[in-house]
């Protein structure tokens, strides 16, 4: 018998057979756009560490939402960069029915009811210390008092019309408490996207600039609640708990350095599994592209396809609109 008997390159030779054997296809419908909202009218502020990503006032946000709808991007994840004057020790602005987030939600839902809205549930944009929860005298983030605050915040978002509440705080037991409260208030359709395996990552730096929590947090860190980057068995336990408590979808975050965790979570539970290509990942890709060191379109589509291959059902990414345009040949 001649060697080699099996030629793996045969199927790769032509575009038609490469297409036929392709296991995963990235679509605009897999993507979730991420946006930062600010007060005002006609305001657009650059985020220096995230070129191409601007903080938008509600009118600009509506334009961005229109692009999502036009391009077939099914959902938008919203993060507020509130006026520093509304920040406090108890983060009460988070559940003010007329806060920036809720006004944005009502405006978006009135104009684009078909666009899914995902609201971040964590206290960091609203606390004077920049932590995701309420702190005691030693600066420790207290679990149950924080969960109570997150419940109020989730109810307020559901009331404003948010489709998904997405707790990104990593307190224990918050999914169950939020689910109970939503059911009791009659919000039986409000979905919960749990940031279940959220790591204490240094890839969030540009995001903290964008929402304006970096200065408040100072030298602080989130190691007492976000996961140790060295672990993945722990991620499975976190996901198992969140699903048992009533999460509709779970998330792994960050993305590209955690593809192993994503695959384990998808294999273990088969639940809707989302992944977040975070601000630091965006900044790396953008910086290399701006220097002419990487081909932006090629590496972005490759990174997003890798998430699907690793088991992601949906991908939160600051590149969602660009990627959708590229996928559609625009
Ligand atoms: N609750 C905070 C929150 N929600 C989403 C991100 C990071 C997103 C990104 O880096 O793109 C963070 C940052 C943090 O935990 O400090
Ligand atoms: Mg947990």
TrEMBL record:
Key words, A-Z: Heme biosynthesis, Lyase, Porphyrin biosynthesis
Reaction catalysis annotation: 2 5-aminolevulinate = porphobilinogen + 2 H2O + H(+)
SMART domains listed in its UniProt record: ALAD (SM01004)
Recorded superkingdom: Bacteria
Pathway: Porphyrin-containing compound metabolism; protoporphyrin-IX biosynthesis; coproporphyrinogen-III from 5-aminolevulinate: step 1/4
Documented EC number(s): 4.2.1.24
A GO term for molecular function: porphobilinogen synthase activity
Similarity annotation: Belongs to the ALAD family.
Subunit: Homooctamer.
Protein known as: Delta-aminolevulinic acid dehydratase
Upper lineage: Bacteria, Pseudomonadati, Pseudomonadota, Gammaproteobacteria, Lysobacterales
């Amino acid at each position: 018998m001649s060697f080699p008997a099996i030629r793996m390159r045969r199927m790769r030779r032509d575009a038609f057979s490469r297409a036929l054997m392709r296991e995963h296809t990235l679509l605009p419908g897999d993507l979730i756009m991420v946006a930062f909202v600010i007060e005002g009218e006609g305001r657009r502020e650059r985020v220096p560490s995230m070129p191409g990503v601007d903080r938008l006032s509600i009118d600009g946000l509506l334009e961005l939402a229109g692009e999502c709808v036009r391009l077939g991007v099914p959902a938008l994840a919203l993060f507020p960069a509130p006026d520093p004057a509304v920040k406090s020790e108890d983060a009460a602005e988070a559940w003010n029915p007329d806060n920036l987030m809720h006004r944005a939600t009502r405006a978006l839902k009135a104009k684009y009811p078909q666009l899914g809205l995902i609201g971040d549930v964590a206290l960091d944009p609203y606390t004077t210390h920049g932590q995701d929860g309420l702190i005691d005298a030693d600066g420790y983030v207290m679990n149950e008092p924080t969960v109570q605050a997150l419940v109020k915040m989730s109810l307020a978002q559901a009331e404003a019309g948010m489709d998904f509440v997405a707790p990104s705080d990593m307190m224990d037991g918050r999914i169950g408490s939020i689910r109970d409260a939503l059911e009791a208030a009659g919000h039986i359709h409000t979905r919960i996207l749990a940031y279940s395996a959220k790591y204490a990552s240094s890839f969030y730096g540009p995001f903290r600039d964008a929402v304006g929590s970096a200065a408040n947090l100072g030298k602080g860190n989130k190691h007492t609640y976000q996961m140790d980057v060295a672990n993945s068995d722990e991620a499975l336990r976190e996901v198992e708990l969140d699903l048992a408590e009533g999460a509709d979808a779970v998330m792994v975050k960050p993305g590209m350095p955690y593809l192993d965790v994503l695959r384990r979570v998808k294999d273990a539970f088969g639940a809707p599994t989302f992944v977040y290509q975070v601000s630091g990942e965006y900044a790396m890709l953008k910086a290399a592209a701006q220097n002419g060191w990487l081909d932006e379109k090629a590496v972005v589509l490759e990174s997003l396809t890798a998430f699907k291959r690793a088991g992601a059902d949906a991908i939160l990414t600051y590149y969602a609109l660009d990627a959708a345009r590229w996928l559609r040949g625009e």
